[in-house]
Design goal:
Distance between the termini: 51 Å
CATH class of the largest domain: Mainly Beta
Strand order of the largest sheet: 1-2-3
Number of strands: 11
Largest sheet: 3 strands, antiparallel
CATH superfamily of the largest domain: SH3 Domains
Radius of gyration: 19 Å
CATH architecture of the largest domain: Roll
Oligomer: single chain
Number of helices: 0
CATH topology of the largest domain: SH3 type barrels
Structural class: mainly beta
């Protein structure tokens, strides 16, 4: 019996083949059976200049950012070390000295 790969989207084991496509009943993801069953590449997040970001990078804030729920402002030029990339609208999780844990949008940072 042929073993089918897990779904690259949700990692469910219940994939099945329909013609040339592999289907996942858990999330509805479809992919080609000829794609060598490689999972999708990780997050492809780019900074404001188009540089590819990775976990652990250091970035600089390129615009004054208001902190929601506070009167504080993250100033332009603030360095943020050891970022972590996540999926969603605010795609960078980090700690900023003097502010604590925050989420930032990649369009407001530049890789150092």
């Amino acid at each position: 019996m042929q073993t089918l790969p897990a779904c690259p989207s949700c990692q469910a084991e219940y994939t099945y083949q329909d013609g040339e496509l592999l289907l996942c009943p858990a999330c509805g993801h479809q992919w080609s059976a000829t794609d060598n069953a490689t999972p999708e590449q990780g997050l492809q997040i780019r900074d404001s200049a188009g540089n590819l970001l990775q976990d652990g990078d250091t970035v600089t804030v390129i615009k004054d950012l208001k902190v929601k729920g506070s009167s504080a402002v993250v100033k332009i030029g603030t360095k943020v070390k050891n970022i972590r990339l996540v999926s969603g609208d605010h795609d960078i999780d980090c700690k900023i000295d003097g502010f604590g844990a925050m989420s930032l949008k990649s369009e407001f940072v530049r890789k150092v």
